[in-house]
Design goal:
The protein is mainly α. It is built from 20 helices and no strands.
């Protein structure tokens, strides 16, 4: 069965984890930016700036990079405080095979690690990569560690493997990245660290969403040969993805491996494993883990409540699932609102065990 959008987003979160010169076709016309631009009061100066931005976006979309560079520089001269313009110019440099220019421009925008951390997730990952290549490796590693601080508690790599981890972790921001953008991060992660389980599982996830079954299963085969028995999070990623592609035996095997590795001590991983066990028919284990997670997470956010709800739905406890979603709906904000709605729709199609 095709991987549903909700599961894909959830898996990207767990995996959250093209060489820089090959980055192209990035999404420059962001809806939120358009909306913000349209909300500015009209004046001759504002109208002129809006036209310059429009020409810059259009040129970038047409891959006319010299013209896009010219227009973005003009827009920045008129509105130097607009961070989006600076980030878009850096993306143009990357797309035009000018990684060093992209790094130099972003270095002026993000002079230290705290400033770098304020960049958009996509830009931040590429900046860390560029800083590692051309600048201060210690600064790059510090940014990577800060940006991946919410990653599963396991030993942090160093060097190129840490930069690779950041690229893979960036795909957690699936609501902000297109599949193509996520793929570029994952390809770069594998380029930096071919042994990245997170990146290979993330690649499998994206291929599955695109209905490229053979390529998805090939990436899962690579990942399962790379994962170590003591890597609880990696085993969890594999178990979750195998459950989504219908490979219940493999899903159960890696879920059990994750439990033996102690991964379920983390309440959020416990929720993921509970869903896997519920999907493969191990109801007792699923219920034990979700109860453990509920007891351990004292103030769950809307997304976590959606995770609980999906486990109960797979266990055939639909009324409990709906109650959890009602709680989630009351506290959901932004993108979480959409996730609550999508989870409700998905629950209607859930078959337990």
């Amino acid at each position: 069965m095709p991987l549903d959008r909700n599961a894909a987003r959830w898996l990207n979160g767990f995996c959250g984890v093209v060489a820089v010169a090959a980055v192209s076709g990035l999404g420059f016309l962001v809806w939120s930016q358009r909306q913000a631009a349209e909300s500015i009061p009209i004046s001759s100066k504002t109208e002129s700036l809006r036209k310059i931005k429009g020409r810059a976006h259009a040129a970038a979309d047409r891959k006319e990079y010299p013209e896009a560079e010219k227009q973005y520089l003009a827009a920045i001269a008129a509105d130097p405080q607009d961070k989006n313009l600076h980030e878009n110019l850096a993306r143009v440099y990357l797309a035009d095979n000018k990684p060093k220019e992209a790094w130099q421009h972003l270095s002026e925008l993000a002079t230290d690690v705290p400033q770098s951390a304020k960049l958009a997730a996509d830009t931040r990952a590429w900046f860390a990569d560029l800083e590692w290549q051309f600048g201060d490796k210690k600064k790059a590693e510090a940014l990577c560690r800060l940006a991946t601080s919410e990653d599963w508690v396991r030993p942090r790599p160093s060097g190129k493997a840490l930069v690779a981890r950041m690229h893979a972790f960036t795909t957690e921001k699936s609501g902000e990245l297109t599949p193509g953008e996520s793929m570029k991060h994952l390809v770069r992660a594998i380029d930096l660290n071919p042994n990245s389980v997170d990146a290979h599982v993330g690649m499998a996830n994206l291929f599955w969403q695109e209905k490229k079954r053979a390529q998805s299963l090939q990436e899962l085969s690579v990942a399962q040969n790379l994962v170590k028995p003591a890597d609880g999070p990696g085993s969890t990623y594999l178990a979750f993805m195998f459950s989504e592609v219908g490979k219940k035996t493999d899903a159960d095997r890696f879920a059990q491996q994750a439990v033996r590795a102690g991964a379920a001590k983390d309440c959020h991983i416990a929720v993921a494993l509970a869903r896997v066990f519920a999907t493969v028919g191990k109801s007792a284990q699923a219920l034990q883990l979700v109860k453990q997670a509920e007891a351990g997470i004292h103030s769950p956010d809307a997304d976590t409540l959606c995770g609980f709800a999906m486990v109960y739905a797979h266990l055939g406890k639909r009324s409990e699932a709906i109650q959890l979603l009602d709680r989630a709906d009351k506290i959901a904000v932004g993108g979480s609102k959409a996730r609550v709605f999508e989870t409700k729709q998905e629950i209607l199609n859930v078959k337990n065990g």
